[in-house]
Amino acid sequence: MKETVFPKDFIWGGALAANQIEGAYNEGGKGLCVADINEFRNDIDIQEKQNEEMSLQHIKDVMNDSSRIFPKRWGIDFYHTYKSNLKLLAELGLKSIRTSINWSRIFPNGDDEEPNEAGLKFYDDLIDEMHKNVIEPMITVSHYEMPLNLAINYNGWYSRQTIDFFEKYCKVIFDRYHDRVKFWILVNQINLIRYESFNHLGIVSDTVDNLLSAKYQGVHNEMVACGRATRYAHEHYPDMQIGCMTYGGPDYCASSKPEDVLATLKHNQMEYFYGDIFMRGYYPSYAKRYFADHDIHIEFGENDVEDLKNTCDFYSFSYYYRRICDKESYENGNNAKRNKEAPASPWGWTIDPIGLRILLNEFYDRWQKPIYITENGIGYFDKLEDGKIHDDYRVDFYRQHIEQIREAIKDGVDVRGYYAWGPIDIVSCSSNEMSKRYGFIYVDQDDYGQGTKQRILKDSYYWMQKVLKSNGEDLD
Q: What is the pTM of this model?
């Protein structure tokens, strides 16, 4: 075995999302997106906070109530401060930044005839600034930023019209940025339809008869749109790399009981489902059985089978934790349970570095395509003391996970890159708060958007800087 494990061209990156950082929700011609109505609630236990289903009445109530708090509307003001933020991230040593283009900046209503030039210009400037800092951009096309109009008036991805809107959006940004962006992820965490169905799919819960069936129809339409976008990219810009992305996915079995093992197999198959279609290009038989058993009906368009054959160039996934599954949890709607054999963050998210190595091996064995870990991190309450953040807990977390990536590479897994989520504090996706901090850079801002907005380097910043300088070898 070679002493140096990480390849010389290994990509050390940081991952962000437009809706969680940019702010400026009503500037530059931007329309409202689904994330702009994600509400912060201070009356809910931190482990219970998550984005929920949305009824049409709830959407109307939210939009008409000025007393509600929507932190993603201001983010960390990245829209106005991206130059100084990118400078700090470049000095950290990051070779790449994964972020998203907010769909509603380019097509404010989703169904507009022409794109918004001011939105395109903003991303011109952002991408150019990345290159000035020798940072390779990785762009997510859809990261919970569907124009709200498409959800309200088209029912989001449940409508086949959205396929055409998305295809048009992709063509516009591919044509605009293809010479400056090589790596693209079409949809963020496409398998999270249980937790992020409105935020992701834009399906209004009380406008369909069978919500579960509607979700899978929405995912089908989304994957068809991705197939069309992938074909366009490959035909017009062969140097572009198109990837799919899932949220972790497969879980551990709770016991050795055959009933639990079978239930876990079924559960995990429907987590592999999305990757199987993106990487293999067709619906697997186990999914057809699952749909029949659960009264799920999916309508195919005339060319859908051919569109789905346009497969991705790489596989990527986010990793935060793995759960456990048994017969009971599977029959209760795939509601896997927390693994109490491992410690957890204050938000109840299990800390399981070995689980990352296991998943890397499982995914590579299954698809034999390059892999990028496009999100990994942990949320903590950080305490500012004498102008400093002493976050040894974050250092421990990253050390353990990088060690397991190294082991997976020794196992023969073709891991090409690792993106920390998020390298600077941002508004949380699931809880819509600043208190849940991930970054190596502290942003002096509270859950209500108050504070100096000053950026402060945490102890973990200097540790990670050393790690990146050594290409992952110096973890002390």
A: 0.96
